[in-house]
């Protein structure tokens, strides 16, 4: 698959048969809805796109996630939710026999998933667990992290549901599971295996369960959602409603680049134009253009009725990625914030 952007002449909801939708920063932020999320997903369903909500959050059970989504105007069934807790339980199956003891450090969702996989859940390192399964829970404290460290020091296999360093909430970014896992890793010197994104395993599980042939990953984080899409060779849509910004897209490493970029989930209902290179060296996307000159990004946007600032992001990504892939060094200081939703703020002479 291309190392750059992809284009679609039809709305993405019509070009794909399954969307693997992240939750935090995409469908909602904390307990608050994200503008355009319900509208975009409802419209996508009407166009025949099936949805599976794939989340690195292992603290909650699928029933709870589906209930929250439904309460925010996004009707969902528990069977449409795939959590990192379920992925962690599947990873345990690759090495442990059923009935083995597992120290679970996390929320109810992880306890339920590990139990359903046939393991005996314990709470102390003194129970001599064969593995530690660690996932995020908002009430996780030092005592639980200490038990995990004791067990790992004694040889237990450390499996993390995910390694997200931060978690988007209504008040800002809070420490994620990766930060808590880091405390255990710092105490033991042992690097855990991770079941969650950016590993593509959860995506593959969801695709197999749905029997899909043309899936699309949707996420807000380049280092997890979109890196997982690249690792799994699955097209990925980056929506600019969460952790990673439009500027991050332009500066993204090849393994974290999105295939599509949209302001929010309503971008599922739109075609996605592919930037093209002009004879003058500009990468042009409708009314926006970008190029790299002497290692610096040069931007131009001609505001017109209905002009989409995301086109400028697409053009900037095409120019920057082409330059980097050609062996040039891009001056990160020349890449502005590219404030999506604020027309006219970013412009440079052509």
UniProtKB/TrEMBL annotation:
MF-aspect GO terms: phosphatase activity
A cellular component annotation (GO) from this entry: cytoplasm
Domain of life, per lineage: Bacteria
Pfam families: Hydrolase_6, Hydrolase_like
InterPro entries in the record: HAD-like_sf, HAD-SF_hydro_IIA, HAD_sf
Protein name, per record: Haloacid dehalogenase
Taxonomic path: Bacteria, Bacillati, Actinomycetota, Actinomycetes, Micrococcales
């Amino acid at each position: 698959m291309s190392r750059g952007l992809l284009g679609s002449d039809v709305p993405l909801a019509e070009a794909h048969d399954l969307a693997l939708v992240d939750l935090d920063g995409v469908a909602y932020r904390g307990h608050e809805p994200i503008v355009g999320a319900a509208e975009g997903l409802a419209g996508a369903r009407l166009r025949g796109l099936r949805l599976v909500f794939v989340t690195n959050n292992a603290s909650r059970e699928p029933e709870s996630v589906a209930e929250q989504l439904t309460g925010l105007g996004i009707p969902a069934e528990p069977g449409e939710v795939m959590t990192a807790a379920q992925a962690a339980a599947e990873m345990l199956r690759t090495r442990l026999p059923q009935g083995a003891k597992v120290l679970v450090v996390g929320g109810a969702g992880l306890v339920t998933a590990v139990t359903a996989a046939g393991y005996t859940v314990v709470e102390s390192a003194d129970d001599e667990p064969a593995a530690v399964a660690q996932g995020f829970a908002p009430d996780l404290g030092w005592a639980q992290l200490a038990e995990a460290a004791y067990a790992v020091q004694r040889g237990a296999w450390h499996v993390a549901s995910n390694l997200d360093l931060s978690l988007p909430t209504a008040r800002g970014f809070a420490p994620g599971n990766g930060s808590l896992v880091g405390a255990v890793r710092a105490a033991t010197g042992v690097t855990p295996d991770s079941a969650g994104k950016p590993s593509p395993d959860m995506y593959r599980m969801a695709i197999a369960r749905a029997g899909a042939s043309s899936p699309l990953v949707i996420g807000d984080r380049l280092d997890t959602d979109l890196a997982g899409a690249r690792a799994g060779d699955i097209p990925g849509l980056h929506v600019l409603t969460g952790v990673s910004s439009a500027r991050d897209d332009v500066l993204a490493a090849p393994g974290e680049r999105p295939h599509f970029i949209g302001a929010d989930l309503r971008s599922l209902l739109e075609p996605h134009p592919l930037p093209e290179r002009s004879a003058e060296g500009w990468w042009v996307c409708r009314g926006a253009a970008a190029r790299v000159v002497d290692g610096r990004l040069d931007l131009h946007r001609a505001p017109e009725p209905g002009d989409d600032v995301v086109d400028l992001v697409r053009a900037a990504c095409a120019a920057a990625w082409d330059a980097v892939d050609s062996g040039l060094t891009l001056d990160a200081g020349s890449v502005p914030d590219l404030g999506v939703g604020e027309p006219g703020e970013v412009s440079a002479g052509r």
